[in-house]
Design goal:
Elements lengths: L1 H12 L3 H24 L6 H23 L4 H5 L2 H14 L5 H6 L9 H10 L1 H31 L9 H12 L11 H27 L3 E3 L9 E3 L21
Antiparallel strand pairs: 1-2
Helix pairs in contact: 1-2, 3-5, 7-8, 8-9, 8-10
């Protein structure tokens, strides 16, 4: 048992090429689950879809069980909000539920946990180091859109004739988020209006965050040895907070 746990820790937390490949495969699985949730909303339920759902559910539970087993505090890991979201997502794959798309969309919150993967990208890609804030802002916005689209689809496709598939729900979510509001699709009732308000308020906030990152001057991440400031102009020689001499690596003269 000890050897199995050590192997799992090495796969999930190690720095070997095998560990990196394993975690990259988990990221690919997460993305595949997202694509499947979207595409399957256009299909009529059948035995094949039920089998695929169960397969995803088993794999999600296996991944979740492994991460809980290697945790330093399994009990604390179980009650974490992201862990609870993944448990609900796994159940929604295994058992047919009315709110399947939204519950499975909770799986996308796992993307917020890919910190180690993002750290490796920063180390391997100069472009990513320069644009990591924009990438993270875009990722957070995309996750919000996906989860809210799931909410809209699951709460409306039963009774709203204008929302019959995921594309309709996505169209409404994006037009509401951007405050375009064509008016061809609306969510009736108080509950529908509250969903629209959440999309507008939270979505616009995330959208503005992304715009702010995209249009402000380019900064680089480099910790000042004196005061710890992390963000500097790409051509900074001295820290603007304390004046300490910086040694920011660049690509040389161009």
């Amino acid at each position: 048992m000890h050897n199995k746990l050590d192997t799992l820790r090495e796969l999930y937390e190690g720095h070997s090429p095998r560990s990196h490949r394993f975690r990259d495969s988990l990221l690919i699985f997460d993305l595949a689950a997202i694509i499947y949730v979207i595409v399957s909303s256009f299909w009529t339920p059948n035995d094949l879809l039920s089998w695929i759902n169960r397969m995803f559910g088993v794999l999600v539970l296996a991944d979740l069980t492994a991460r809980i087993a290697i945790s330093r505090s399994p009990a604390r890991e179980v009650i974490r909000p992201l862990t609870l979201a993944e448990i609900v997502a796994a159940i929604s794959f295994l058992i047919p539920l009315g709110g399947g798309a939204f519950l499975r969309a909770l799986r996308t919150l796992r993307l917020l946990q890919t910190y180690a993967f993002l750290q490796r990208l920063r180390g391997a890609s100069t472009w990513f180091r320069r644009n990591d804030e924009a990438v993270m802002a875009a990722t957070n916005l995309a996750i919000f859109i996906f989860v809210m689209t799931g909410v809209v689809y699951d709460t409306q496709h039963w009774s709203n004739p204008h929302i019959t598939n995921y594309a309709d729900a996505l169209y409404f979510t994006v037009t509401t988020l951007t405050t375009t509001g064509f008016g061809d699709i609306t969510l009736p009732g108080i509950f529908g209006r509250m969903i629209s308000l959440v999309i507008m308020i939270c979505g616009v906030t995330l959208f503005l965050r992304l715009a702010q990152v995209l249009f402000r001057p380019t900064r680089v991440r480099f910790e000042c040895a004196s005061c710890g400031l992390m963000r500097h102009d790409h051509d900074a020689v001295h820290c603007k907070a304390c004046g300490n001499l910086l040694h920011i690596k660049d690509e040389g003269a161009v």
